[in-house]
Amino acid sequence: MTPPVLPKPEALLCFNLYAASHAFNRAYKPLLDPLGLTYPQFLVMLSLGQQDGQAVGQLSDDLGIETNTLSPLLKRLEAAGQLRRERSQTDERRVFIHLTPAGIDTAFAAQRIPESMAAALGITRDEADSSLATLRRLRDLLNGTPRPQID
Amino acid sequence: MTPPVLPKPEALLCFNLYAASHAFNRAYKPLLDPLGLTYPQFLVMLSLGQQDGQAVGQLSDDLGIETNTLSPLLKRLEAAGQLRRERSQTDERRVFIHLTPAGIDTAFAAQRIPESMAAALGITRDEADSSLATLRRLRDLLNGTPRPQID
DNA sequence: GCTATGTATATCGCGCGCGATACAATCGCA
DNA sequence: TGCGATTGTATCGCGCGCGATATACATAGC
What we know:
2 copies of one chain form a homodimer. By secondary structure, the first copy, chain A, is mostly helical. Chain A has helices at about 15-30, 40-50, 55-65, 65-80, 100-120, 125-140; strands at about 55, 85, 95-100.
């Protein structure tokens, strides 16, 4: 029988995900501020550092951020001198994103943040990987992927 | 030695948390739309359903949402007829939030969403609780709590 | 009582996050 | 070749999320 009282948000997986995500954002902020990056901007810089010259749509797919969110975000990063936006010659609808030299420096500095955060929290690689796998499985489930058990 | 290439966001715990959180939001949206609630509004309604008459600050603490986010959110819920805002008689700085009858109905309807979502995804209570505990520990770490192993 | 300090809530500004929409460039196909 | 459908990106509107700030109320100390 259904209990007479509603569940506390604390008892819900979705709330704990929501709260942990915001907690991560708050914890990263003091480390990202010196770089002049927001958290989603940090993700974009890392993705570009990993593979430069991606189109807007590729970034959108990889990060799960809609292009209508990315467009203004990329404009702000361009205005900050971190990247260039370059129309494709062969398909003028597409826009390729390239890091500037300053952007490359920023990306390398950004790379260290997760490491130092993990170290500061005392989280081992194994713990992180384990949680990460759980979250990835959950995300695939939510995204409607028909459960690809292995990756 | 540090690898010559930057890490993919995919390999980061923080990104997977970020992405899973947004995925949850997107998955909940079609279920919340009929109730006229956003996701944070859903959390507020559940919290009030669990304990009515909370002050703004209590909601803020419990949900980890700043009062500057809650104030306009509560005004929207009041405008939607889901709750009343009532100044305390004894301390006129405080505002207590009470669900309206319509709000109580909404809260009960909202309560079913997590259950049905879990069922649709094939997630058992044990799996949810296990992930939940991991996320809670992570959140406590990030919030600077000096690691209270048990709760 | 009267000022200083602290507390509870609210307002403002800016950057997401995303649905809806716009628009140009490309593609498909008769 | 031409024209409708599709694709890639951008714009708009609204609701968070949160730092900074405001404001009213309460409390403490004198």
